[in-house]
Amino acid sequence: MSTPPTTAPSTTGLSTGDDLGAFATIRRGVGYSPELAEGLWGTLLLAVVASVGQVVVPVAVQQTIDRGLGADGGPDVGYTTLMGVLAGVAVVLTSVSSYLMTRRLFITSERGLATLRIKAFRHVHDLPLLTQNTERRGALVSRVTSDVDQVSQFLVFGGLLFVVSLGQIVVATIVMVVYSWQLALVVWVCFAPLFASLRYFQRKLTLAYGVVRRQVGQMLSAVSEPVVGAAVVRAYAVEERTQTRIDDAIDEFKAASTRAQGFTAFSFSLGGVSAGLANAGVIVIGVWLAPGHLFGGDSGRISAGTIVAFAFLVTLFVGPVQMGTQILTDAQNALAGWRRVIGILETPADLVDPGEDGQRLPRGPIEVRFDDVTFAYPAGPPVLHGISLDIAAGTRVAVVGETGSGKSTVAKLLTRLMDPTEGRVLLDGIDLRDVRTRALRRSVVLVPQEGFLFDDTLAANVRYGRTDASDADIAAAAVEIGLGDWLDALPRGVHTLVGQRGESLSAGERQLVALLRAQLADPDLLVLDEATSAVDPALEMRIGRALERLMSGRTSVTIAHRLSTAEAADEVVVVDRGRIVQRGPHDVLVGQEGSVYAGLHASWVAQQGTVAAGRG
Amino acid sequence: MTTHAAQHASLDPTEASAEPNGRPATTIDGLQVLGVAIRREPWVFTLSTLGSVLFGALTVADAWVLGWATDHVITPAFAARDAREAVGAGLLWAVLALFLGVALLRAVGIVARRLGAGIMQYRMQAHSRRAVTRQYLALPMSWHQRHPTGQLLSNANADVEATWGPIAPLPMAVGTIAMMVIAVAQMLLTDVVLAVIGLFVFPAVIVTNVVYQRWSAPWATRAQQLRAEVSEIAHESFDGALVVKTLGREGEETERFAERAHALRDANIKVGLYRAAFDPALAALPNIGVLVVLAVGVHRVLTGSSDAGDVVTVAYLLTIVSFPIRSIGWLLGNFPASVVGYRRVRSVLDATGSMPFGAVAAPSTGRGARLEIDGLGYDYPSGSGKGAASLLDDVSFAVEPGRTVALVGATASGKSTLVNLVSRLVDPDAGTLRLDGVDLRDLARGELAGAVAVVPQQAFLFDDTVRGNVTLGADVCDDDVWTALRAAQADGFVAALPHGLDSRLGERGTSLSGGQRQRISLARALVRRPRLLVLDDATSAVDPEVEARILAALRDGSTGESRPSLLVVAYRKATIGLADEVVHLAEGRIADRGTHAELLGRSPAYAHLVNAYEEER
Fold it and tell me: Looking at the whole model, is its pTM more than 0.80?
């Protein structure tokens, strides 16, 4: 594989979604998970009932005590019974409606977020190769796992409480206005600074939680090292250094979290201070409204009972306000997670698939044409400079060149892992960009250098080439490329488990599986990024034979690292510093003295010769 | 990693399965987990609990201030003919000061409670993560080979988080319990009969919670397990992104992921349904209690058994505690996940086995080390399904100072196992390995690594800079780093990186190609100037022409006495050609040894092995 730039130019990175406001995030989030909006009105209606009930119950209890139990001349049994029954009914209604509401909320949220998770997962696969390679693997994984979990936690717990709290605030305000609009105003004025400062604190919190998320990523990465790098850590006895790095990452995460928690706690405490202010305000202003006082006039504008009742109403107001502000601050964390998931979905997908409008490639060996193709990585110098190349259908071409010459880029352009910056790549005369992606993947198969295997059976891995292949098809394909006996010799045949990343198999065996996979896919153009891995010579021989049969009857382009591959090709294309400098059969090229190919050949021969001559 | 050892993991389901203990989580278990945290962080716990108690006390004080204001400010203001005369500015200031004072103190209580809970939670997470990762570093390689990567990562992350989840509501719950005790005492003093009725509420809440836990715990556990599985699939699928993309298998991969994501969704919904049923019940119980108290209270007042004030007091106390009592529910609700997480973390912490080290320092001879392998035997670990088969059997040979020995053999002949033994990732079942005459097991920790550098086939890079990856923290100047990179043929592409030695390589070095990773990994070995260099097929992913330059640098870089001894596992003839002696391994035994030419001459099996490819042509 060639050398992609190590630090991602901005154009290859993922969108972080950081620029999205809270409402925009929610709107887009709901756009990606339409389930969230399903039955929303019913849920809201239930929320209204639940929140009214939650205000009604304490008010009814208060009334029972004040007017029923404490009535002049002994308890008023009739009134007490009436209010008691009313409160009982309210309790039942509230419970039933919050049960139904929670149920609905859980179902729609979890459904919506499962959809979001799956969409984001799919989109990661649709991202350009370059983005996939430059992003930390862990960061991509966390966007479809913990980030979504965070949103889920918020929606089903915070979201619910938030709706109910808002409802309670509204209901409490209405009740207060009914008692005394002046005092209701006082309460709202006392809470105004809190509401005004919410924005400021939320900005602070967004920043603080942004840092927390970044530190989580670093910490996860550090924590994975003693697991994934277990052997290296031991062989180099760098346990202490590894632990120090982990400890540092853990400490930084802890510090960032504590800081964010400090902000949360402080902003939450403001609600209590506002409540104290409101209580004092109600009494002071209330007294001023008493007969003969500042604004009271002669007969007064308020009664003592109203003030006392107000003190009670303020507590009904403060509870949900505090709950609501707390949820708003918790929401920052969830919103940050949501933004990051949305960020994935809004990072432009790979190359544009013409879809249904796209062309199909006819079956049979494919003719390849590079037409003045230039390629540069984003913000990088060109890797290929205007190359043109014709490959006749059914020929076997080897592309050779030094490391970094641009030869691997040829393979990536040919399989449309990337589009050329300038010029066109044509298959059977059709521009690759006009070919439907599904048809392209069907006809053109790349066998990468390191054939990644999934932790499953050999058969399941091979089926990545053709989903509907039966075990018999797989066995037949193996026989076709001369791997029948190898497959039979495996203890459990096609049902052999290959282990994580295929590590239960040797590197050579993994290559065999990759070739079998390609054979089953039955492409018309085979692009091979030749494995440079040296393997067991006996396996090497098998691989050579399998390749030979895999290539027969197909057009094949091999990014070659071996002399033997170049020798066996119909034509050799020599790439040097992004340009085609030579092409022709091996025998001709090798005779061109002083040429790049002659140089490469000499070094190959020298290597073989080392052994032939023996050693000292 | 040896290919064989990796097989063990998949062949042994009991070892690989995550659940150390299927016992259901009880409240007692949950409390025990909290006990661990409290013993570990007593001061933070005390501070946050005090904050919570302060908050609770001032909540009650609020009612007292209101009562005082009613008696001394509101009632006189309205009773008097002229309110202004009855209630002066001084009294109004006092009202303001009292309310604000209580509110500010309450705010202090809140900050102490919440910040304290946060600090305690983050500290406990940090303690656990440190302990778990220390354990990962301390446990022997054989343990790692038995446990899937995804599971271990989940143990250090999701499980740690779940374990300490209940700490967040802990201080509030403790404060609530304190409030509850005071309230209960006051209720009993006020009116025993009404108090007893009211007191049914508290056990009812607790019983409801226990039932809730019992019913929802299995689903919570399942959701947690599924979260790990979803994460594993995502990890693997993104690792294999190139294969998925080039074969156009995005759809099938998405289906595979969706299947687990949907199972997770269903488990989460199940948890939610229990929550939907129990949360309103928990909220309703105190209200029902208050209503019952009022109903009975009215009756008792009518018969003269209680007075109205007592009924009000009991009802009021029930109301005050009714909201915070839910924090006990939150606490208990977190218990099942916490206990499961704790057990998983514990299973890592309780895992035994470590590599014991001796106390002998590696002799510092200033020249290549002598490696002596004597009667070496290594069996498949028991329970691997391979019976008593041996991976290595009676292997003896030596690498003399400054000499190069090539290990040649077919796949599964035992080469990688031998390399693992030389680097002491595992210890032999029979025989000994000696470095300059010292048994490897007698060497002190770090001594072996100081003398021997192993370059594995699968290069592992740290999420660190190029410099950090090469030096691994050793005190090495940049010139030496560049020298090592040059010898490993890595200087060219490193110099082309935007920040040179300071370029970060990203997680597992994913931004580099396989060959580039191998070269960085080789430079890491060379920069330490090892006295014995072990190359386990370490240049396999490097272009042959680049490999030739690497080999030339290794051969010519140092001469005579100072040249390190070299043990190479190789397939390529060019690499084998470096060797003074070739050891031909077949099925765990030495089939033959000698120079390459000698072996070619007398061993058809060897000739077949190394010439296989050419013969075919």
Answer: no
